[in-house]
Amino acid sequence: MRHTLAKQIFTVLKKENLTLVCAESCTAGLISDTLAAIPGISSVFWGSFVCYQNSAKEKMLGIDPFLIQRFGPVSQEIAEAMSSGALGHSSADIALAITGIAGPDSDEFGTPVGTVWISIARHNLSPISHKYQFQGDRQEIRSKGAIEALRFLLQNIEGR
User: Fold this and answer.
1) Phi and psi at residue 4, in whole multiples of 5°?
2) What range defines the domain where residue 6 resides?
């Protein structure tokens, strides 16, 4: 499923002459790895930021630590800050970000395991985001997050 979505994304990005950057937390590069399996992807894939710890989000994407303290690392605000930060720290046209709790335990904010926020940012537009609640073990949540992130991206780039 992930690879089929990645191929479709590659086709649309190429057709629309867009480049993509990713910012991944809970998936730890799984989305980028899926994209990298597509031959020719380098023509549309700028690269990715794997920002697992909060300090990585702050240093790599320029996220204000106050935002993380106020809203928690798994929130709409942080997902959107991640996508905006990735866009601003790259030369890509569109950014995809994901942050979530894969488990086995909740975070210090009490965010339930399986909570995932996905965000997309484009230049001169407000970021868009969506919250998901997945069931399963750690790897299942990560895989479901990657699939839904790719699906969300595809839905938001087709025909634009």
Assistant:
1) -65, -45
2) 2-157
